[in-house]
Structures are given as C-alpha cells and as structure tokens.
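From the thread on structure requests for the teaching lab: each student submitted one protein with a one-line request. Submission from student K.M.:

"Model Methanethiol oxidase from Sphagnum troendelagicum, tokens only."
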Amino acid sequence: MASALEENGLSSATTQTSSENGSQAHCCHDENSGPGYATPLDALTLGPREKILYVTAVYSGTGIEKPDYLATIDADPESPTYSKVVHRLPTTHLGDELHHSGWNACSSCHGDPGAQRRFLVLPSLVSSRIYIVDTAANPLAPVLHKVVEPEEISNKTGLAFPHSAHCLANGDVMVSCMGDKEGHAEGAGFLLLDSHFDVKGRWEKPGNSPDFGYDFWYQPRHNIMISSSWGAPLAFTKGFNPNDVANGLYGRHLFVYNWPQGTIKQKIDLGNTGLIPLEIRFLHDPNKATGYVGCALSSTMVRFFKKDDETWDTQVAISVPALQVQNWILPQMPGLITDFLISLDDRFLYFSNWLHGDVRQYNIEDPANPVLTGQLWIGGLIRKGGDVWVEESGGEVWQSTVPDIQGKTLRGGPQMIQLSLDGKRLYVTNSLFSAWDHQFYPSLTEKGSHMLLVDVNTEKGGLSLNPNFFVDFGDEPEGPALAHETRYPGGDCTSDIWV
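Reply posted by the TA:
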C-alpha cells in the first residue's frame, strides 16, 4: 500500500508526518522534548500544516454488514489525491460504532523525551471494544496494534460504552465510559489503560462516579477535571425520545473532580439552560481557570469558571434560540449544538448546530461575552427545497440557503469539527450517531455522509466554504458510510492538553 501511495505523490506527506509521530518537527522540538508542543501558541505558530486526516467511518446501524473503519484522507492541496480517502483500516467486528478517538501521548507528555505519539485509541461506543492503532511505521496506512475486548473492561471495572480518550502525563490513557454493559447510566465512570493498553481499573475513587458519562477535560494547574453528561446508553442508542429527558435518562450536570485524586469536588446542576451537556473544553492556556461546555438540547454554550473561594460556577455565554417551525415533529426546533472547539490562541470558539444547519465562529477574547464573527449554512433541516419552514412571529416564513459543492447537494447537518493548528481551516463532518442520523437525517444512512473544509478569517472573523475540498463517503467501495471525528497525526486542538 505504501508504494502505491508514493506513486500517487504522497511521499512528502509521509516524510513530514513520520517526523511528527517520532522525533517531531525540527522547527519546534529538540531531542530532549517529548510529543506535541511546549505551549498552545507554539503549536499554532510552529506546527506544520496538516497533510493527513484520520476520520472514524461507520457502517454500524446503516444496514451494511461491514466493519467500521479508520479512513486516512489526503489533505495536502499539492497532492494528486487531495481530498480523497487513500487508506481504510477496518475493525475486526461488526456493530462497533467507532466514534471519538485520542492519542496514547500528546502535549501533556511534552516534558518526557521517552514518550512518543504513536498509537491512536479508538473506543467503540456500542460494542465497548477499544481498538489501538499504530500510526508510526506508515502514517498513511496505519495498522491495528491491539484490541481491548469489552469483556475485559466490564469484568475488571464494570464499565462499558467508552467515549472520550485522553492521554495522561504519566503514560496512562483515560477513557470516559457512559454506563454498564446493560446500558444503565449508573455504571458510568473513567477507565484507565496503562502504557501497554492493559486495563488498570477505574480512575475515580469508589463512590465518586458521575451520574452520567460523556466527555472530560483535565487542568492540572488548577487540580481539576470536569466531565459532562449525555445520557443513559439504553436510551440514546435507540434514538432520541423527548420523554426520556423528562424521565431522567439524560444529563444536565457537570461533575467537578479533584485532580488527580479522583474525588468529586462539586456537582453543578445546569438546569433547563444546560440540558444534555456534551463536549467540554478548558481554554488552552493552562493558567486560565475557565472553559465551556456545549449543551445540545438547550442549544447553549455554558461557560464554567473558578471563583475566588476556589469553587466553580457557570453562566450561559451563548444561547441559540429554538426556531418556530412548520412541518416538523415538534413545533419548535433546537439548534442542537453537538460539537465545539477553541482555537489554540484562545481567540475564537466554533460550534455546529446539527439540526439548524449552521457553523458559527465567536470571538472569545472576553470569555464571558462572546461576539459572533462568522456564520455559515452548510446543511440542516430548514434548507431551501425541504419540507420544514421557519415561521417568524409576524407570520413570515423562510428557509436557509445551502450551497452545492462540486455539483452535489449537501446532506445532513454540520456535526463534528476540527481546526487546523494555525486556525485557518475548519474540517466538518456530518454524522452524529447512527441511530440519531437515521432518525433525523435518513438520507445519511442511505447515501452516506461527507466531509467539508471551511476557510476561516482569523483577522476580522468570517467563514467560507472551500470549493476544492469534498470527501463524499457515499462513494466508498463497500457502500455509503458515516464519517465522524477527525484527528491529525501530530495532534490538534481537541486532542492535546497542556499541563
């Protein structure tokens, strides 16, 4: 496979990325440093342009009886296979539902010259299997290194439904889990894998497990880890039922942990303005004691921050109003904020409204008062040509204008996003979770999802669709697939934590 890729003009990408996985790029690393970068600003100013993208691709729940896979995408605009899938690494089983991913080592290990960013950790949200992928020998064609079976995880920890994976500075990998093997949220907690990816146990102390699991972010300079709460797997794996929210099967809390002790310091109720808090990020500057969580159902960005008395509090920093609509399952449609991220200089915040169909950019130089600086419609349920109309208070109705790209109609709504290190390119995929895709955007499971590139104005703000980059997962050899999270071989703004 490597020789074929080199014939297609990708040898330069291989060379550049191999240095990132091993000794790191010489512009910003020396032989005495570990993986990643010393500071977030080093990553922004010294990091190379991304030439390879790793994207989780899913057949689970689509009706196609094929294993999910890790897609390698050529992101080098000088390459003849630019914006094409150049390699596919299948999992070993059917029905895994690959979702998020993380590295065995990142910038939190920068001070350890013996550490190497080599293995990509791929939790399977439905099967609870965790795949370990080796990217070092040939970053364009990664290989399977190890499989952590769900029985081992459950027998040793009681955990299942793994979601987010972050490396720790000591070489361990921590994975949030959303329930027990029966799908009860009461089984949620945090799995620890050692440097050989053997199960060590739970991270949190007994009696300190969260009510619900989902995402987490740690900040050692403030001795804090904060986790968020999606819902009970036995509920969300079947699709979204609003009654499950009323019945307490979805979360509305943040769990503030003492780091690294693993004990709960605070449990913060976000109330009705913080329903289903999903992705959570601190600002990248490790000295800053603030960050945000995206609350999907409430369609709010909630800021959390440390107060003078060392306790933590929250405020709604951004609110996307629900739209009054015609011809939908409910009279009002939430934006459904399903992913967000922060630029490495902590200047801009980006998020996606999966149902409304827009991606937004906010200036957060004043974290308590974000300012909208860019908005782009690239999908959604209220687009022109669809059945759903937005109805204003005065009776006027409207639909959003969504462009075609390379002669093709965009499907679904913007979902997972990933930003280039320099902050100038935002990659967007559109699959949320196969059961929810099928419920809200049936065409995704029938025709596959896609990946877009949004060009970012980092001076004045602004977003525009790049017409030259389009990865259509509807054209995959084994049939239409669902594309989810994106990673770069050298790390990115959602994989790396600075300590």
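TA comment: Residues 158 and 302 are 31 Å apart (CA to CA). The radius of gyration is 21 Å.
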